[in-house]
Protein: Putrescine oxidase
Organism: Arthrobacter pigmenti
Amino acid sequence: MNTDNHPTLTRDVVVIGAGASGLTAATELKKAGLSVAVLEARDRVGGRLWTREIDGAMLEIGGQWVSPDQDALIETLAELGLDTYSRYREGESLYLDAAGAQTRFTGEMFPVSAETEAEMERLIEELDALTAEIGPEEPWAHAKAQELDRISFARWLEERTDDQEARDNIGMFIAGAMLTKPAHSFSALQAVLMAASAGSFTHLVDADFILDKRVVGGLQQVPLRLAERLGEDVHLNTPVRTVRWNDDGVTVVSDNVTVHAKRVIMAVPPNLISRVSFDPPLPRRQHQMHQHLSLGLVIKVHAVYEKPFWREQGLSGTCFSPYQLVHESYDNTNHGDARGTLVGFISDEHADAVFRLSAEERKQRVLESLAAYYGPEALNPEVYYESDWGTEEWTRGAYAASFDLGGLSRYGADQSAPVGPIYFSCSDFAAKGYQHVDGAIRMGRKTAQLILAAQGEAAPSSYAAANSH
């Protein structure tokens, strides 16, 4: 690649990735008086946040919900002047069992047999206890870390109950709804971290808590407004190809601009770090670690109807079944919209299976699954769209990266540790708020603080000003 004609910038910090984490870090650094440049490969900011208009309907292609414990996100929404509204939840929810029998219910617990309910409650209590004991900050340092990291979550459940339906339902909350991987492919420790990052396993079970509110106009407004404040410091359509680094700083070479800086923040999912060539290469530890981290796979299905017809049936729109193609579905009607919108999710191996079908066959299968919950009216939406982050060049999966068996206890302590002038910041490395926008913001703030602390230990003058000649 010929870079002779590229403009060259000199900044204190260069940020690779204009998602919520990278933009938060850049904002905090700029507030502190440092100069920044944010380089984004896409033609938009937001990363895994993306609000689009599809056939006249506003759809949240990526992340969208705000829960009460997400302090960092809530603070950011207030600072940016963004309003929220509650997800529609009036009426009864639906549960489909393995035989396809449909049952209405209210509350958090599924309408299963008394024996299965007792088993589910016992498993939730045990997971809550583990979550409280281990916590989200350093699960790899706990005395039980290696034991829990060497057994799959599926196997852990099998060792605790013979009740298949209880295992299927508890597994769904972590495997299908969160990590979007089969429960046999990640460890019990990874499952505990997922629950701990939300405060408890009980929070993950409670849809009214974890999916509490939405942002009026879409959650992508967070990165959009942060980027607007950063102005010309944000460079779109600028894939980074090379990072040259030493103790004195970095030179970041992209398709459109070269940036000299004291430090660089890799604010991208860990599976994309290896897309950049480092000179010299990253240490062996990072090379190995990144091979044990991978994103899950999920299809987020959007179906927009003339009206929210399920409400007329006394339904909230909230539906669950580990036995359906669409394992969970919700009323996702936009604020002030007379139409009704449903959003459903298809995870891991189920997503693999339907991706082998043609687009029309897949749509038919998905709508039939929605109709199993909502009835035949669900078969005829005015707008239908599938969010498939697995095909996104600069994401390649969803929702977030997680370790394979044994990886969290082996590498967790090093996943966000700086390497010389190279820092790592993304929701995939968060403790509280892991794999959520809240975690991305927390990591952006934390990374900025680390850099400012290091800056304070170095020469007080600005790197950019000192090297502007």
Summary: The first helix runs from residue 20 to 31. The first strand starts at residue 8 and ends at 16. The mean pLDDT is 96.
